[in-house]
């Protein structure tokens, strides 16, 4: 774990022209470099836009997982993209900053105790709050009252969290142990394509069965 941030150092050096990049020049390489530059200059905006796009993909994936053949409304995609843009990405961004720059700032970030501490705070403090917030926001977007959402959470939250822990505890061990802070939200967003699709399916099915 001592060399966890070597990748990010090499990326920044390549962007500055300090070292050559072995990957052949291509549209994909240019786009990736541009994305990394934006992560340095406008990290929050870049992460928010990325989360918004991937949330839209999650919405489409959720419909595929459900396999009910119903038409996907553009409003559903817009709602999820808005949540990714305005809620999920900013909160996750600042949570990671809080962990690295405040709570664990005096410790080696990739040491095993610190990684475990981050995972515990992430999954047993932050994740329940984020999941509940997601339910309430979706409820408001669907014109459901807070009372309806609260009942839904009471029935589903623990079961959802148990499934989340099976996925996100291993993912976060990798994220906090090996992924640079600047790329951590992107890593989580990619995994979230499938997790958010599951959440959308769960909330949608609960709405139909209420």
UniProtKB/TrEMBL annotation:
Q: By what name is this protein known?
A: Peroxisomal membrane MPV17/PMP22-like protein
Q: Which organism is it from?
A: Galdieria sulphuraria (Red alga)
- One Gene Ontology term, aspect cellular component: cytoplasm
Secreted keyword on record: no
InterPro entries with a match to the protein in the record? Mpv17_PMP22 (IPR007248)
Q: Which PANTHER family match?
A: PEROXISOMAL MEMBRANE PROTEIN 2, PXMP2 MPV17
Q: Which family does it belong to?
A: Belongs to the peroxisomal membrane protein PXMP2/4 family.
Q: Does the keyword Membrane apply?
A: yes
Membrane topology, as annotated, equals:
Multi-pass membrane protein
Stretches that traverse the bilayer? 48-65, 77-99, 160-179, 185-206
Localization of this protein: Membrane
Q: Which UniProt keywords apply?
A: Membrane, Transmembrane, Transmembrane helix
Domain of life, per lineage: Eukaryota
Principal localization reads membrane
